[in-house]
Amino acid sequence: MSTQTFVLPDVGEGLTEAEIVQWRVGPGDPVAVNDVLVEIETAKSLVELPSPFAGTVGELLAAEGDTVDVGAAIITIASETDAASPATVGQSEHGEPAEAAGEGAVLVGYGTGGHVQSRRRKPAVPAEERVAASVGVIAKPPIRKLARDLGVELAAVTPSGPAGEVTRDDVVRHASQASVFRNIETPEWGDVREETIPVSAPAPAPGRVTVAPSTPAPDAAGREETIAVKGVRKATSSAMVQSAYSAPHVSVWTDVDASRTMELVKRLKASPDFADIKVSPLLIMARAVIWAARRTPMVNAAWVDAEGGAQIRVRRYVNLGIAAATPRGLLVPNIKDAQDLSMRDLARALEKLTLTAREGKTTPADQHGGTITITNIGVFGMDAGTPIINPGEAGIVALGTIRQKPWVVDGEVRPRWVTTVAGSFDHRVVDGDGMSRFIADVASILEEPALLLD
């Protein structure tokens, strides 16, 4: 019998730390190779760390909520074999993720295909509450996990599956609808003026860490809350400050009659070719941005501070970023070489991107290399905005909500589906005529999608 220490590995992102989000095992639990030990959150994504060897869990050396440096010990496992020869497992002598004998410890979202990981986890709520809330609900384990991650009660979801089961789309749709009304109820003012929630656990007793959620002080209730800035929120805030104070932003916008876009979306939804794909106005917006970027390449360019002097890098391809609001914060994954995709393939890519982001499985590779971004603020009921440019890009386009408004058509006021298209641009790269021409082109596609056939 030997005791191995598993250290926090470098998950291939070039990051130096991660937060312990949720332990999937506890002291005394048996584990097999590739059983998930813990879920961690880096500045870019959620990652499940698998066990590189079989054995019995000894101690948890870091608590949920702790931020741990790469290379720090996080768990010990007693193994009956010496399959993993180093005393400390998690990194090889060259700093690479360690592998068990004959089988690699594949990180979810990063590893190669073919590895099936056991998703042993502790329930997020007491078992009796979880069972009571799920009586009569048919849903596969991945759907139940998604519901937990999004804070959705399965019993409240209307199922659409052929056997009456709750599907992934049902859960996502319910979560999206709930988010619109989340702030309608106004909580009462508390009796205490201030509240500070501890952002880190107190120092553990020597030799052992007790894993328990942080709780506020007994007299802390109601009026204020302090949230630690870490993970995705920390990365987002840093990137936005960098962008706002390094790139001179200029924003332009225009109102658009999007009635023909709504008609096209309706036809696509009824088409057998799109029967298994979610179609929304965002699909037409994406095609419009790709088309308009080809006509005004500078909006798809980037400012580069090179050693020999500043340069503008013009990209002849579009890695289309889609700003996605997720339970973990704002993510901006992108669709690689979106200019080469058909309408159907682009619709499927948008659907996959959205679902992956909401499940918290967006990888760093999916977020790297974007060239221009769309933010769909219309899903929140917003008409327009002046978004901040994603670092490494020169433009971001905002699609406002599409609602019926009075619109003058051939001298008559008629109800039409109207939206606002706005955009922010790096004025070092794009001049006023270029950004105005680009937004006008996007608007023209939304007004007459048939132009995409050109």
Distance between the termini: 71 Å
Low-confidence residue ranges: 82-132, 179-190, 192-219
Helix content: 10-25%
β content, as a range?
Answer: 15-25%
Please describe what this structure looks like.
The protein has 3 domains: 2-98, OB fold (Dihydrolipoamide Acetyltransferase, E2P), CATH 2.40.50.100; 127-181, E3-binding domain (Dihydrolipoamide Transferase), CATH 4.10.320.10; 240-453, Chloramphenicol Acetyltransferase. It is built from 9 helices and 21 strands. It has helices spanning 127-134, 141-150, 168-181, 231-246, 259-270, 281-295, 343-358, 364-367, 432-447; strands at residues 2-7, 17-23, 30-31, 36-41, 46-50, 55-60, 67-69, 73-79, 88-89, 99-100, 103-104, 249-257, 302-306, 309-313, 320-326, 329-331, 334-335, 372-375, 395-399, 403-409, 412-426. Strands 12, 15, 16, 17, 18, 19, 20 and 21 form an 8-stranded mixed sheet that branches. Helix 2 (141-150) runs parallel beside helix 3 and helix 6 runs antiparallel to helix 9 (432-447). The model is unreliable at 82-132, 179-190 and 192-219 (pLDDT under 50).
Which key features would you list for this structure?
alpha+beta; eight-stranded mixed sheet; Dihydrolipoamide Transferase; Chloramphenicol Acetyltransferase; globular; 3 domains; five-stranded mixed sheet; 454 residues; OB fold (Dihydrolipoamide Acetyltransferase, E2P); 21 strands; single chain
